């Protein structure tokens, strides 16, 4: 029920962090994977994950550039010989600054990658999935899809939008056999959080807010990613699943 043998997946932002862990887990479950990332590390990550089993490919693309996004998506589809069963939109940006100090250029950059690129990639994938009569789209929300956060207005607004986009696209495409869901991670140990993890004031404040008593690891999101990619979740669509060690329940 959880096997992904024969399935073909595109995962953005998978050169590192949560995306890399999800790419590894989908590969381990049997899927052929394309890592779509702006980073030069994508090639090494693909080689590392794809040593055995189904192929893992790397495609370099900048999701902030709309033309390049389309080209990179097409290159990924070509590598998968025209089929896309799973799209995971994991690439994301954060900038921590007070609202008063935040530039509108940064606001636009964060919205372009965190929201507009997710919308466009989802539509490009759904065109193929509608033809196939099946597909899984998984977006990366955040606990800041629900909470306002602190010094992260653009990011939390973008992740709130992801929760709504997930529901909107689910409503439109559920009848085509496509499930659109989101994962909402809490405080995870990736480079995105190096600054707050190393902040002597904020780090202990955050520790005290996590009922599980620890930060999440990239591997902590992988079970939910495989579940939402597999037939086990075929009747689940339009939901945002927190993977946060209990933060939102507190
Ligand atoms: N780390 C956390 O605590 C946390 C919590 C909640 C949600 N999330 C979300 O999960 C997702 C993954 O986060 P992460 O911690 O793995 O981040 P990360 O910074 O470790 O990795 C992000 C990846 O996205 C890629 N990327 C950035 N801009 C890009 C662009 N313009 N085009 C193509 N690729 C680009 C980067 O090269 C990198 O490989 C993000 O959407 C993030 O908002 C993370």
What is the number of independent domains?
Answer: 1
Q: Can you summarize the main beta sheet?
A: 7 strands, parallel
The CATH architecture comes to 3-Layer(aba) Sandwich
Helix content: 40-55%
Describe this structure in words.
The structure is a single chain. It contains eight helices and seven strands. By secondary structure, it is α/β, with parallel strands linked by helices. It has a single domain, classed as NAD(P)-binding Rossmann-like Domain (Rossmann fold), CATH 3.40.50. Strands 3-2-1-4-5-6-7 form a seven-stranded parallel β-sheet, sandwiched between helices. The structure holds nicotinamide-adenine-dinucleotide (NAD). Nicotinamide-adenine-dinucleotide is lined by residues 12-13, 15-19, 37-39, 61-64, 90-93, 113, 140, 142, 185, 187-188, 190-193. This is 2-deoxy-D-gluconate 3-dehydrogenase. Keywords: Oxidoreductase.
